[in-house]
Every structure is written in C-alpha cells, then in structure tokens.
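Quick log. Single chain, no ligands specified.
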Amino acid sequence: MSTALVVDDDETVGDVVAAYLVHAGMTVRRVADGIDALAAAAEEPPDIVVLDLMLPGVDGLEVCRRLRRNRPDVPIIMLTARGEEDDRIRGLEVGADDYMTKPFSPRELVLRVQSVLRRSGSALPSPDESPEAPAVAVDGNLEIDRRARRVRLAGRELSLTVREFDLLSWFLAHPGRAVRREELMHEVWGWDFGDAATVTVHVSRLREKIEPVPSAPVRLVTVFGVGYRWDPAP
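-> predicted structure:
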C-alpha cells in the first residue's frame, strides 16, 4: 500500500485530500507546516508528497528543495492558491513533479497522484514506448536503465525526478522526432489537459543534468515553432 504525506495548513483542504487518497487505497499522514513535513519525511519516508506552497514558517518551496536534496526520487505534487505562472514555475524549478492550483478537483488530484506513483514504481518500459524498447539504452556516454529507473552520464549516476526520467526515457525511445509540448504531455504522462509550461520547466531541468552547456543544448534541442527533438550521439 502506497503512503502519502499531505502537507497543508488549511484543515479543510487537508481533510478532503486525505479522505480522497485514503478512499483510493493509500495510507496518509498529515502535517500542517514545513518543519513537521521535513521531520515526518525523515522519520517515515513517503511514496509521494502532496505539498502546499504557502505554509507557516518554512514554506513549500524550501520544503521541496530540502526534500529533493535528501530524497531526489520521491514524487512531489505542489498545491498553490495562486494562479500566477511565476509561482507554478518556481515550484517546478525547485523540483516539484507536478502542481495543482486551488480550487482543484480532488478526483483529478488522485488521478495525478496515481499517475506519478505508477511511473515511479514501474518495473516495465512506459506504455508510450515501443514494446521492443530495450530495458537498457545507451546514447554516447549516456546510459538509461528503464527497469531500475537509473541513469548514468559518463559513468556518474544522475538523480532525476519521476518526470525528468519519463521525459528522457521517451526521447531516447524516439530519437530524431520533433514533438510539441502538448504531445509530450499526452504521450509521456498520459495527460489530456494541463499547462504546457510544465514541459518547458522539466526540459530545462533535464538539460541542466545531461547537457555540457545547458544554454546551448546538443542532445535535447529546441525545434523553433514546434517543440523539442532528441539528437542522438554520433
């Protein structure tokens, strides 16, 4: 049974989120501030964190940063009462896998949670990939093990979030294909809705980890007017 840590100082929101996740078969632990969230995650590491941006004391952005340092693999979905794009992007930039803006549909949140958990716990290639896609793929000095969900660059293991791993795995399975951000949301994560800026931020974070010069990418390149393309190593 998967465990979720729900962090929100709004008791009503916390109650609703917890109730829906429990109904979906999850074990839920609730806390109301950033300090307690970090302590709870250290004491009993959760399978996923649902994290409010605006928290008393240590805010959600700082909690996300610290969780990422200690648990780079734990999926984090950020909740925010703000609709401004800057707030959403800041959450993604510090390591959140996804975000939802309040007010939101609890059923949609459960679907997002289940989607991330399926990815993070999958022992098989993603359904959007070809069934013939090898468990281990090599592109120059980059190696990805889809079953173990591990990535090495020049022999050094990289720490990728669930979304970053999914993107990289998809691109390696589809080299040379120019793809729009909306297509990536659907083909990589199975979303038929959402903000395309989510893809932009995850691509940027992935470039920081795999490109020699992230501002001048040679692998995960931009196709102007279209989206992105993976150029395999010679």
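The chain is about 40% helix and 20% strand.
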